[in-house]
Amino acid sequence: MKRVFIALTALCLLAGAPALWAADSIKIGLMGPMTGPWASEGQEMKQVLDLLAKDLNDKGGLLGKTVEVVSEDDGGDPRTAALAAQRLATQGIVGVIGTYGSSVTEATQNIYDESKILQIANGSTAIRLTEKGLKYFFRTCPRDDEQGRVAVQTIQKLGFKKVAILHDNTTYAKGLADEAKGLLEGKGVEIVFYDALTPGEQDYTTILTKMKGANPDVVFFTGYYPEAGLLLRQKKEMNWPVPFIGGDATNNPDLVKIAGKDAAEGFYFLSAPLPKDLPTAEAKAFLGQFEKKYGHQPASIYAVLAGDGFRVLTEAIQATQSTDPDVLADYLHNKMKDFPGLTGTLSFNDKGDRVGEVYRVYKVDADGNFILQP
Amino acid sequence: MEEFFQQLTNGLAVGGIYALIALGYTMVYGVLKLINFAHGDLFTIGSYLGLTLLTSLSLADRLGPAAGVLVLAVMVMGLVAVVGALLERVAYRPLRQSPRLSAVVSALGASIFFSNALMLIYGARFQVYPQGILPKVAVNIFGLDVPLVRILILAASVLMMLALYFFIQKTRIGTAIRAAAIDQDAARLMGIDVDRVILFVFLIGPALGGVAGLMVGLHYGQINFTMGWIYGLKAFTAAILGGIGNIPGAMVGGILLGVVEALGAAYLSMAWKDAIAFGVLIFILIVRPTGLLGERVAEKV
Predict the structure, then answer these.
(1) Domain A2-142+279-346, classified CATH 3.40.50.2300, yes or no
(2) B2-299 adopts what CATH topology?
(3) Which residues of chain A does B270 touch, with a Cβ-Cβ cutoff of 8 Å?
(4) Phi, psi (deg, nearest 5) at residue A158
(5) Considering chain A, what is the average pLDDT of its residues?
(6) Which residues form the signal peptide (chain A) (predicted)?
(7) Mutation site for A-interface testing, chosen from B220, B259, B267, B269 by largest number of A Cβ within 10 Å
(8) Distance in angstroms (rounded) separating the CA atoms of residues B232 and A201
(9) Which of A 165-184 lie inside 8 A of B, CB atoms?
(10) What is the radius of gyration, based on Cα positions, of chain A?
């Protein structure tokens, strides 16, 4: 009996521990900001993934197994994220979805790469994330150079000549600010102000006063919605009527709550289309399900983009009948063409970037609604 | 020149809030030699409680803006004072005889507990004060439009600091607090109930922090459960800058820090704002290791 037991144990060891864990379920990680300043994004990412996983399991799961979402909180902070990534990497996950902020994603890229875990980021648009040649890194959101181009087009179309650019020193915001600055300089537009604020504070009157002194026609703010809301509000209190354009990180309904409707009115921002403006049939069906389960539509496009990350990963597993990271990465890079995602068709190039135009221009109306600009 | 004065008023308004929070640090340090890291979170609790009371009781509608805000301030101060006293009872009193480091760790733990409790109760999203509670009037001072709210914030801060100063200097309990700050054992021998003194300190300090939180909420509108950290850090810096343990020092340190930040950001570099502020702190500590007003070490608090 003892001998049989030893033989069995040896067999198990030979088969390898991952095979044992994978016997009942396929694990997919979710790394998102469940707490911290971007917590509303992360919590919605989890809602979207839970819904999609349940849907998939109701339809029979994947490769005959159930799909399990293992989520970890990155706190919107690179240090917390590195720990979260290390915890996830030890749990036998095939791939991880996330995360939102570029500097947060950047802190975890190598951890996943070394563990051969596919990472599909949903909100990290900084250019350099996909310029490192990491084989297992993908993203469903567009890149800042595309966003920079759209920003410059918009500024030119609206006829602004003197531009102030303000960022917040995060990987994403600074990257977008630099990109826009480089593109604008060659086009006869004068950059009268270029500086950074400290995110997480509440009084931005100092920087507004300083910017006002430079007398710009328009301010391009590339940071996130909490600061954008405060800037708009304090600008209004100063009676300074300059128009503001925001990057895609200002796309969150909380912006209007923070700024107040009268201060937010007329604010332009660039973004992938909002959930409510998604045209595809997949999206409409999904939004209906989401509303049925949670009682409201998802507020953030990044949560839906996380859902697309989950969908392409499970599609890759299904199509290749494999959970081998090399096979899956190859499938996503080379074989998957125009997969019908929630946010439009999805294909990836060699770098792991999503192919195709995504950005739109939105404007906030007097009631605080985000209106898609033609 | 107009821009200079504009930036000066910006700095004074922020400095007033730093000063008010710094008072709580300085009082606790003066008596217990303990940096109360949870103080920033008491400030956050003040702003959240203020929001809840404001929306649920609709005080501003019933009593008018001025009286409504005043009543609200008193309620917030009372509630946060209770939280502060509980904090002292639960997290600090059991460690009174332990090494100082244990109390600091306990303070950090309390800070994490408070901010996460706020997140669980109110949710992780930003909370927003209703608009239009305070009148948006600008006062013209020497040709400069200064929002009335900013003047009120600074005035309220200075008033509360003066009241505290006279309370500590002129009243019996104030004298007892000063005595306990100098030597707890000797104070006990003189018949002073030191535990009661410490309880008092933990009623006053958090009350001031809480009312600062309310002011921030009313003025800036947006509050979140992590904001206590950054304000706490700045106020702690202000307390050290002015000489920790010294009440006028906290006042001077807070206002100075606010002004240095604003002017540094305006005329040197925005991105380096914090580096400039902390650079000033380092410079002052090199020249005067006890802080600006910290020379009378024996007369802390």
Answers:
(1) yes
(2) ABC transporter involved in vitamin B12 uptake, BtuC (1.10.3470)
(3) 195-197, 206-207, 210
(4) -80, -5
(5) 88
(6) 1-22
(7) B220
(8) 12
(9) 169
(10) 22
CATH 3.30.70.1350 for domain A145-271, yes or no, is no
Nearest-by-Cβ selection for B265 from A39, A207, A260 = A207
* Cβ-contact B21, B79 below 8 angstroms: no
Supply φ then ψ for residue B222, to 5 degrees. Answer: -95, 130
Give the nearest partner residue to A206 out of B147, B230, B266, using CB atoms.
Answer: B266
Domain spans in chain A, listed from the N-terminal domain onward: 2-142+279-346, 145-271
Nearest to B226 among A36, A40, A207 (CB): A36
Question: How far apart are alpha carbons B131 and B218 in whole angstroms?
Answer: 8
Sheet holding A218-221, edge to edge: A190-196, A162-167, A218-221, A244-246, A268-271, A360-364, A370-372
CA atoms in the 13 A half-sphere facing the CB of B115: 22
Q: Where are the domains of chain B?
A: 2-299
- Could you report how far apart the first and last alpha carbons of chain B are, in Å? 38
Q: Which of B 127-166 lie inside 8 A of A, CB atoms?
A: 128, 131, 136, 145, 147
Decide if B115 contacts B41 (C-beta within 8 A).
yes
Cβ contacts of A100 on chain B, cutoff 8 Å: none
| DSSP letter, residue A130 | G
Tell me if B16 sits within 8 A of B157, measured CB to CB. Answer: yes
What would the mean pLDDT of B125-151 be, rounded to a whole number? 77
ipTM associated with this complex: 0.81
CB contact under 8 A, B265 and A169: no
Q: Who's near B258: CB < 8 A, 6+ residues apart?
A: B11, B12, B13, B14, B15, B16, B17, B18, B19
Interval B62-105: pLDDT, tens: 777 778 888 999 999 999 999 999 999 999 999 888 888 898 89
